[in-house]
Amino acid sequence: MICQQDGSPDCSALEPDASGSYKDGTWAPIAPMSIWRRYYASAVLASGKVLVAGGEDAPTGDTNVCEIYDPVQDSWTLVPPPPGWANIGDAPSAVLPDGRVLVGDINSTRTVIYDPVANTWFGTGTKGDVSSEETWTLLRDGGVLTVECKPTYPKASQRYIPATGTWVDAGSTQADLVAHAFSTEIGPAVLLEDGRVIAFGGTGHTAIYAPDHGAGVWSAGPDFPLGTDGQLMTVRDAPACLLPNGRVLCCAGEATGGSGWAGRLHSSNTTRPTTCSIRSRLPGSTPQCPTSAG
């Protein structure tokens, strides 16, 4: 595991202990990136190397600087950006099943693929909207799902089909997940064990995508609990992960405060895929899901 220091090109790696435990591992400095950057596309390649591309905050705003980290050599190597791309910024990305990396354009509807074996970029399908602020999720069939943050119609979503190199409509999310009034922010979207996807919104709402009905079907998911400000908690640019028990851990904050971002972090919430409910982990709070959820 590697981590970059905010506002600096310096990086560190977490090394496991002698028994292979990262819990008791140690952090050690590694080679720095060529530039400092914040909010960017990144991907672990099949070779174990790490690709980073772009950066919203960098010496040059929305930079197009790309580089690859080699953990064996402890070195970064610059990679030419996609041809004609003056900016990459905080573009979304996804590693496809064949090891190539799909990257979106924050300023246009074009998308591109990086081939790490050939060390080249080539264009692929055109999206219905620009990719700025979006969350991309790899599906079991090798496709990529996204909720449009600048939607072509209300609550729109799209899916990338690798076999044809095209983006297709994936239907309405039913619940509006995009914080349109503030930087069109959205939350994470996680692939569940049964192949569905739960998408968390920057609005306090969620939606669940079931891919087993042709183009797939969305349904409204459970709302986040109310914060102490009386409004639904939000997950704008928040992290989430799938736990070993099949639940999803997600961080949320109050809707007010934070200059439009979620305010002070109040809880981590878990959703149980079978019941699709959300429980607040705020100390002293009342669980929001049935006791059978465990």
Structure characterization notes:
This protein has 2 domains: 1-89, no CATH class; 133-294, 6 Propeller (Neuraminidase). Residues 282-294 have low confidence and may be disordered. The strands form 6 sheets. The chain has a 4-stranded antiparallel β-sheet with strand order 4-5-6-7, with no helix packed on it. The protein has a 4-stranded antiparallel β-sheet with strand order 8-9-10-11, with no helix packed on it. 0% of the residues lie in helices and 34% in strands. It is an all-beta fold. The chain is globular and about 50 Å long.
What is the helix content? under 10%
DSSP strand content = 25-35%
The string of secondary-structure elements, in order, is EEEEEEEEEEEEEEEEEEEEEEE
Question: CATH superfamily membership of the largest domain, which one?
Answer: Kelch-type beta propeller
Class of the largest domain, according to the CATH hierarchy? Answer: Mainly Beta
Low-confidence stretches: 282-294
Tell me the CATH topology of the largest domain. Neuraminidase
For this structure, the quaternary state is: single chain
**Residue-averaged pLDDT:** 89
